[in-house]
Amino acid sequence: MRLSVEHVTRYHYDAPVRYALQQARLTAKDRPGQQRVDHWTVEVEGGETQLHYTDHHGNGVDLIAVDSGASELVIRCRGEVELLTFDGIIGAHRGAMPLWTFLRPTSLTRAGRQVRALTSALGRDFASDIERAHALSALILQRLPYKIGVTDAETNAEQALAGEGGVCQDHAHIFIAAMRHLGHPARYVSGYLMMNDRTQQDATHAWAEAHFDHIGWIGFDVSNGHSPDQRYIRLATGFDYQNAAPVRGLRYGAAQENLVVQLQVQQ
């Protein structure tokens, strides 16, 4: 399946910006057997791309400096990607980061009382570790229904589980924390999902991947209850959201920002 993407991230500042720097992980990359990028561009208005580099997770990163005195920054991505995989299996581990590093907890994926109780509730009656992972995914969605506006980018897995709902980022963090607690390397994935019922979207998507002996990495989209298929474009991976966020940055000065995202993903 071939998908086209048009993604606009617009920051509006209520006062001229003294200094701001953004890291954008918005470049889809070729991944053998998974996705082939026909073309992809990242354009900036109100700032300048000072550097493009590949980080330690293999993600393409644009370092964007906001123009001094600017009142708006616009990051516009366009591209077409052909999706080659249909079953969520990514395969063998590659890259500079050793596999064991994906077992380490982070501040967003630490397995405390809530996560440990969740894994205990799974029981042990499973034919395989992969079956158990799917059961875990279903249990997370049952315990934490999809609900916008009750968590934010700083909410960790324990805090999310103690609440009344969460979004794809929270589901991914809980799944990662639980899988690491169960002894499986796990990582966070950011990207795009073509929705079956609409073209216009207001956010990118996130899911998780876990590693299994003799198979490798397998994706789990907890929020939608299945493994990623030919509707998913992978942008970035990392230990958690902080390593794979589409855009993150810092700003000096008193200006407050308003963020608007416009996104179209279609066949």
UniProtKB/TrEMBL annotation:
SMART domains the UniProt entry points to: TGc
Pfam families for this protein: Bact_transglu_N, Transglut_core
Signal sequence interval, chain numbering: none
InterPro entries: Bac_transglu_N, Papain-like_cys_pep_sf, Transglutaminase-like
Single Gene Ontology BP annotation: proteolysis
Keywords on record: Hydrolase, Protease
Keyword Hydrolase in record: yes
Superkingdom: Bacteria
Organism in which the protein naturally occurs: Sphingopyxis flava
Gene Ontology terms, MF aspect: peptidase activity
UniProt keyword Membrane present: no
Domain Transglutaminase-like: 160-224
Name of this chain's protein: Transglutaminase-like enzyme, putative cysteine protease
